[in-house]
């Protein structure tokens, strides 16, 4: 899939951006209305060393957890977020590091 450190999703008429800032070491969510005016900003992760988003086309149909690479943004059905975090313990140089990954399936809400 396409690999980036941010992703913007349309939620109704609003746009929601999740972005990693390497300088601040944060993963932030910013929601903007149809005019681009910020409605909400939240820091989701602090002490974040890296974060990336990958976009995939769909789940496999053979009941496995395999995923297919994205053909275009219109075909995107799965977003995989990978992130790693670390911090100093008691002010010492030793760090505890955590690497995590999550797959989010995009579904269209029926009206």
Please specify the SSE layout and strand pairing.
Blueprint: E1 2-4, E2 6-11, E3 14-21, E4 26-32, E5 38-45, E6 48-59, E7 67-69, E8 78-88, E9 95-105
Antiparallel strand pairs: 1-6, 2-3, 3-4, 4-5, 6-7, 6-8, 8-9
In a nutshell, what does this entry contain?
The chain is mostly beta strands and 111 residues long.
Q: Can you describe what's shown?
A:
This protein has 111 residues and is mostly beta strands. The protein has strands spanning 2-4, 6-11, 14-21, 26-32, 38-45, 48-59, 67-69, 78-88, 95-105. The strands form two sheets. Strands 1, 6, 7, 8 and 9 form a five-stranded antiparallel sheet that branches. A four-stranded antiparallel sheet has the order 2-3-4-5, with no helix packed on it. A hairpin with a 6-residue loop joins strand 8 and strand 9. The chain is flat. The model has no long low-confidence stretch (mean pLDDT 80).
The average pLDDT score comes to 80
* Oligomeric composition of the shown chains: single chain
Strand portion: over 45%
Query: What level of helicity do the residues show?
Result: under 10%
Detail the poorly predicted runs.
Answer: none
Gross morphology: flat
Question: Biggest sheet, in brief?
Answer: 5 strands, antiparallel
Which class do the helix and strand fractions yield? Answer: mainly beta
Distance between the termini: 29 Å
Rg from alpha-carbon coordinates: 16 Å
Order of helices and strands: EEEEEEEEE
The number of helical elements comes to: 0
**How many beta-strand runs?**
9
